[in-house]
Amino acid sequence: MTRWSVDALGTASPSSSGPGVVIVGASLSGLRAARSLREHGYHGPLRLIGDEADRPYDRPPLSKKVFSAPVLDDTSFELADHQAFPATWQLGVAAVRLDAQERHLTLSDGSVVDFETVVIATGARPRRLDTDPSMPEGVLTLRTRSDAVRLRSLMAPKRRLVIVGGGFIGSELASAAAEAGHDTTLVMRDAHALAPYGEAVGSLVSAMHHDAGVRVHSNRHVTGVTRGPSGTVSGLRTSRGWVPADVVVVAIGATPNTEWLAESGLVLDPGIRVDAQGRALGHDGRHLPHVLAVGDVASRPHPLVGDGSVSLPHWSNAVETGTAAGRLLATGRWSAASLPSFWSDIHGARIRSIGLPQLAHTHTVTERDPDKRRLVVEYRRGHSLVGALTVNRTSRLAALHQLVDHDLTTGQHLHEEIPDAHAGPTVHSPHRPHQGPEG
Ligand SMILES: Cc1cc2nc3c(=O)[nH]c(=O)nc-3n(C[C@H](O)[C@H](O)[C@H](O)COP(=O)(O)OP(=O)(O)OC[C@H]3O[C@@H](n4cnc5c(N)ncnc54)[C@H](O)[C@@H]3O)c2cc1C
Questions:
Q1: Ligand 1 centroid – CA 314 distance (Å)
Q2: Is residue 216 in some structural domain?
Q3: In a domain, 210, yes or no
Q4: Do residue 315 and residue 361 come from a single domain?
Q5: If you count Cβ atoms within 10 Å of the first and of the last residue's Cβ in the chain, which end, N or C, has fewer?
Q6: Same domain, 24 and 97
Q7: Residue 382 — left, alpha, or beta (φ > 0 → left; ψ -120 to 50 → alpha)?
Q8: What CATH number is given to the structural domain containing 325?
Q9: What is the pLDDT along the chain (439 residues), one digit of tens a residue?
Q10: Model-level pTM?
Q11: Neighbours of 88 (CB within 10 A)
């Protein structure tokens, strides 16, 4: 597998006597950065600042186990890493301003925190419906553990759940709700779920939804929300009629948490633009050696997108970039896997993807077995394989990984024009405006 391993010339190594490293965002990528710093021999001051009051937890189970976890409380799905290294924790407080020149942060409680190096790991938050000036009770999003606790508490028997968005989070949640016996409806703007991955993937997932009893309303735009007599949500107005609802979850993609950096001088597009080693770029085009960004909040260069940059809002990217940033600061060397990857579980089917399928012009189904719900799809740009997706066929991934990796190193795909981006990773090309994913 191709790995980037670059000497971090110009990267500021934190000392053991100064204010040291501050990590903003105490979740998956921030924790991995902290752990990696310690594992790679950094013994200096280390502070984690997170605006969630709870100890860090893993997000993927939120959409998959929200109804099936035996208990869902403020300890569920905890990330064990937080006990694995010495650090100062400041939870329940947000960073509201970064002064990159003077090297300090202002926090929401008014305090100021100095740093030698800051690692920004503030992730993303869900997009909301913009159809109404304010949303009634019962319209939720799903990003945090408290969102999941709230959703579970609202879903009493016979209550109708409507999910907006046929992407991964919407589909996983529909799967979890149907399994729990809830009356579940999925409203989506495309003809099929997971539409950006092509008709074969979409129709298989839509069929799984139907088989599980999920009502699927495709090709619909939500135009408004209706309220019942008590003021709580009663349904959704859509381009093709009204859909009754007692609880609505909006899963239409995410936006990086960068507003607090508006005056920082960092390039935001809308994620924090970083160089190949995770170092933030300033408006003069030069990297800031003492400001790194990792995980969902970063928009980074990638061999698959040539001069552009890419946001990869996936678990493995958060782990890899967080780990790489810690290593870079402790040792001066960056190393991260070159191929993006993610997984999803929908109606018991394991979906795996590698590469960047959204760069493809064409896709080919190389294996299909509807009875076993198996599928292998290859995504090509010109003659180059830029991505692959498997459903219940994880065993095929190793060979596909090698092929995508080989075509990536030839750079052939870069000579083709990049098509519009769809869901999942968001590609920022210098040639066209950013378009967001559907969650
Ligand atoms: C419901 C759900 C299911 C998912 N399932 C999958 C899956 O199956 N497979 C997969 O590959 N990926 C999945 N993901 C994506 C994966 O969880 C994310 O890619 C990962 O959590 C990103 O980690 P992060 O640390 O970069 O950001 P986040 O997890 O978003 O953490 C950022 C943290 O920073 C905090 N923060 C924000 N602003 C500030 C501030 N100004 N000051 C201090 N703190 C701040 C946030 O509150 C948060 O705690 C899922 C995500 C969700 C929400």
A1: 8
A2: yes
A3: yes
A4: no
A5: N
A6: yes
A7: left
A8: 3.50.50.60
A9: 333 222 333 454 666 668 999 999 999 999 999 999 999 999 999 999 999 998 899 999 999 999 999 989 888 999 976 677 899 999 999 999 999 999 999 999 999 999 999 999 999 999 999 998 899 999 999 999 999 999 999 998 899 999 999 999 999 999 999 999 999 999 999 999 999 999 999 999 999 999 999 999 999 999 999 999 999 999 999 999 999 999 999 999 999 999 999 999 999 989 999 999 999 999 988 999 899 999 999 999 887 787 889 999 999 999 999 999 999 999 999 887 778 999 999 999 999 999 999 888 899 999 999 899 999 999 998 888 999 999 999 999 999 999 988 877 776 665 555 444 333 445 444 322 223 333 4
A10: 0.91
A11: 12
Question: Is the distance from CB of 260 to CB of 98 less than 8 angstroms?
Answer: yes
User: From the CB of 27, is ligand 1 less than 6 Å away?
Assistant: yes
Please count the structural domains in the chain: 3
Question: How far is Cα 65 from Cα 71, in angstroms, rounded to an integer?
Answer: 10
The domain boundary, picked from 337, 364, 395, lies at: 337
Q: Among 337, 353, 371, give the residue marking a domain's end.
A: 337
Q: Do 217 and 199 share a domain, yes or no?
A: yes
Q: How far is CA 433 from the centre of its chain?
A: 20
The reply to whether ligand 1 has any atom less than 6 angstroms from the CB of 123 is yes
| Ligand 1 pocket, residue 122 CB under 6 Å | yes
Domain shared by 174 and 242, yes or no: yes
424 close to ligand 1 (CB < 6 Angstrom):
no
Distance 233 CA to ligand 1 centre (A): 27
- 373 and 411 share a domain? yes
Q: Using an 8 Å Cβ cutoff, are 193 and 209 in contact?
A: yes
Going by alpha carbons, the residue nearest to atom 50 of ligand 1 is 60
What residue numbers bound the domain in which 301 lies?
3-125+254-337
Q: Which helix (H) or strand (E) holds 224?
A: strand 222-227
Ligand 1 atom closest to the CA of 24, numbered from 1: 43
Q: Is residue 282 in a domain?
A: yes
- Residue 312 CA: which ligand 1 atom is closest? 19
Q: ∠247-424-380 over CA atoms, to 5°? A: 140
The best mutation among 122, 252, 394 to test binding of ligand 1, ranked by most ligand atoms within 8 Å of the C-beta, falls on: 122
CATH code for the domain of 385: 3.30.390.30
